[in-house]
Amino acid sequence: MDTGVVDRPEQNRFELAIGHELALAYYKLDGDRIVLTHTEGPQALSGQGIGSRLAKGVFEQIRASGRKAVLRCSFMAGWSSRHPDYDDIVAG
C-alpha cells in the first residue's frame, strides 16, 4: 500500500508531502524498535486528516519492516488507541 509516507532515516523522520508542506513524524531507533517521539503537521492543513494519513503510513512502514513501535508521541499513541488493528506492532 502506497500511503505517500517516505522514511528519511538520515533525518530520523517519516515525511508526508502535501503540496509544498510536510507532515513529519520523528523517531529514534532502539534495536528492533522504532521509538516515535514527535509528530508535527502544517497548521494551515489542521483538521483535514493529514495526521491520520501520516500515522497510517508510518504504522504500515513499521509493520513492513518487521520492527515494533514504541509510542512516546502523544499523537501517535492516541491514533494507535483508535486503530487496534496495529496492536501487534506496538511494543509495551
Automatic annotation (TrEMBL):
GO molecular function: acyltransferase activity
Record PROSITE patterns: GNAT_YJDJ
The keyword Transferase belongs to this UniProt entry's keyword annotation: yes
Pfam family, one: Acetyltransf_CG
Entry EC number(s): 2.3.1.-
Domain N-acetyltransferase: 6-91
Top-level taxon: Bacteria
Enzyme category, top tier: transferase
Classification via InterPro entries: Acyl_CoA_acyltransferase, Gcn5-rel_NAT, GNAT_YJDJ
Alphabetic keyword roster: Acyltransferase, Transferase
PANTHER family in the cross-refs: BSR4717 PROTEIN (PTHR31435:SF10), PROTEIN NATD1 (PTHR31435)
Name of the protein this chain belongs to: GNAT family N-acetyltransferase
Lineage: Bacteria, Pseudomonadati, Pseudomonadota, Alphaproteobacteria, Hyphomicrobiales
